[in-house]
C-alpha cells in the first residue's frame, strides 16, 4: 500500500472497467471494459530431434574417422567443430530418421541423391553407409568451397549452383538450410 492509501500494483495495468449509470429508469448499469491488446507470445522453437543411441554413436565415430581430413584444417575447423557441423547437417536433413525420403528423391540420414550416392560408392538405404557418404560429400564441398556455409549450400543446392552464384545461391530453401544447420551447430556447441 502506498503512503496515500492507494494499493500498489505488482504488474502493469492492462485494462480497467467503469460502471456507468445514467440515473434514468431501472436499467442495470452498463459495464464498459477498456483494455490494451495482449502482447503476442513468442513462438516456441521446435523441439530438437533426438537421435537414437546407435545413430548418435555412428555419427560420432564417422565424424572422428574423418577428423584429420585436410579440408578441416584449411577451413580452420577442429574435430569438435566438424562433428557438430556434420551432426547438425544430419539433424536438418533427416531429423535422424534413417528411412527419410524427400520429394526430390533424396534418401536416408544424409538425404543423398541416388546419383551422388553412386558417385560416392555407397548404398543410400544402408544408414551407416549413408552417414559415411554424407560425411565424405560434406568434406568434398568444404574442400572445394572453404567455409562451412558454402559447403552446406553446395550440399543442399549442388556445387554448380554455388560456383555459378559465387556464394550461397539465392534459393530460399538453400538459404534456410544453411541458417538452420548453423543454428543447430551453435546449439550443439553451446554457442549463442
Description:
The protein has 192 residues and is mainly alpha-helical. It has a single domain (53-187), classed as Lysozyme. The chain contains 8 helices and 2 strands; from the N terminus they run ββαααααααα. A two-stranded antiparallel sheet has the order 1-2. The chain is elongated. The chain starts with 14 loop residues before the first strand and ends with a helix.
Which features does this protein show?
mainly alpha; two-stranded antiparallel sheet; Lysozyme; Transglycosylase SLT domain-containing protein; elongated
In short:
This protein has helices at about 55-65, 70-75, 80-95, 115-120, 125-145, 150-155, 160-165, 170-190, and strands spanning about 15-20, 30-35. By secondary structure, it is mostly helical. The mean pLDDT is about 90.
DSSP strand count: 2
Shape label: elongated
H/I helix tally: 8
User: What top-tier CATH class fits best?
Assistant: Mainly Alpha
Q: Would you tell me the overall average pLDDT? A: 88
Q: How would you classify the helix and strand content by structural class? A: mainly alpha
**Cα-based radius of gyration, to the nearest Å:** 27 Å
Instruction: Identify the CATH architecture.
Output: Orthogonal Bundle
Amino acid at each position: 500500500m502506498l503512503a496515500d492509501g492507494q494499493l500498489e500494483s505488482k504488474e502493469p495495468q492492462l485494462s480497467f472497467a467503469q460502471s456507468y449509470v445514467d440515473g434514468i429508469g431501472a436499467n442495470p448499469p452498463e459495464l464498459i471494459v477498456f483494455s490494451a491488446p495482449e502482447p503476442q507470445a513468442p513462438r516456441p522453437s521446435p523441439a530438437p530431434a533426438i537421435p537414437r543411441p546407435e545413430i548418435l554413436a555412428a555419427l560420432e565415430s564417422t565424424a572422428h574417422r574423418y577428423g584429420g581430413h585436410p579440408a578441416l584444417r584449411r577451413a580452420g575447423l577442429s574435430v569438435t567443430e566438424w562433428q557438430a557441423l556434420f551432426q547438425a547437417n544430419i539433424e536438418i536433413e533427416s531429423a535422424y530418421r534413417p528411412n527419410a525420403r524427400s520429394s526430390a528423391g533424396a534418401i536416408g540420414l544424409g538425404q543423398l541423391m541416388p546419383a551422388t550416392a553412386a558417385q560416392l560408392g555407397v548404398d543410400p538405404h544402408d544408414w551407416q553407409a549413408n552417414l559415411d557418404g554424407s560425411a565424405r560429400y560434406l568434406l568434398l564441398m568444404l574442400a572445394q568451397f572453404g567455409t562451412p556455409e558454402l559447403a552446406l549450400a553446395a550440399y543442399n543446392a549442388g556445387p554448380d549452383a554455388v560456383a555459378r552464384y559465387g556464394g550461397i545461391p539465392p534459393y530460399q530453401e538453400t538459404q534456410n538450410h544453411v541458417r538452420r544447420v548453423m543454428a543447430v551447430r551453435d546449439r550443439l556447441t553451446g554457442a549463442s
